[in-house]
Design brief:
With about 180 residues, this protein is α+β, with helices and mostly antiparallel strands. It has one domain: Sandwich (Jelly Rolls), CATH 2.60.120. Helices cover about 15% and strands about 40% of the residues. It has two helices and eleven strands, in the order E-H-E-E-H-E-E-E-E-E-E-E-E. It has a five-stranded antiparallel sheet. The chain has a four-stranded antiparallel sheet with strand order 5-10-7-8, with no helix packed on it. A two-stranded antiparallel sheet has the order 2-3. The longest helix has 16 residues. The protein is globular.
Length: about 180
């Protein structure tokens, strides 16, 4: 992703009805449906992994992300793979500074499902500058996976829900 296009922002159409149902479904999930949890920081698992078929409307969001990624990166959708996780922030939660360039990631993304007032800002560290982006429900942000980023303190008593994603080349799955 060229440096001048380090962050691409899209507002997805008809997000409100889908997001309301999706948020309700996510918050109703029992703990045993998560196939994996990772990144235990500040008293919570930041990444919750689940089968995409368990949530209404999620497949449409993931397909849209793959289409946008193909437009940015160049290869056809079929030449890309997408991994995703849920991130549920409760009052007082933060997400520590990190990047996503550990493996074969070509692009990273976040989609905001539920963003109450007083949600922490998404903060990108670009060169020696910080770019704060206010999250908005229905918004998709795609960015360079090598960029360090973090999320400020969530101050609302209503959970903030986002879907984190990494996009890489298809066919590189481990055996």
């Amino acid at each position: 992703m060229p440096q001048q296009n380090v962050l691409q922002i899209y507002d997805l159409p008809k997000h409100q009805v889908n997001n309301t149902d999706l948020a309700r479904a996510i918050l109703a999930l029992p703990d045993e449906v998560f196939v994996h949890r990772s990144h235990f920081f500040h008293g919570r698992y930041e990444n919750l992994y689940i089968d995409a078929d368990r949530l209404p409307g999620l497949q449409l969001i993931l397909a849209t992300v793959l289409e946008r990624s193909a437009q940015i990166l160049g290869p056809a959708v079929e030449e890309l793979k997408l991994g995703f996780w849920l991130n549920i922030m409760n009052q007082g939660n933060v997400t520590s500074l990190h990047s996503h360039d550990d493996d074969d990631e070509l692009l990273s993304a976040v989609y905001y499902v539920q963003v109450p007032e007083e949600s922490g800002l998404f903060r990108l560290h670009i060169d020696n500058e910080i770019k704060d982006v206010k999250p908005v429900a229905g918004r998709l942000m795609l960015f360079d996976p090598a960029l360090p980023h973090e999320v400020g303190k969530h101050r609302s008593d209503i959970p903030r829900i986002s879907i984190g994603m990494n996009i890489g080349p298809a066919g590189n799955e481990p055996d």
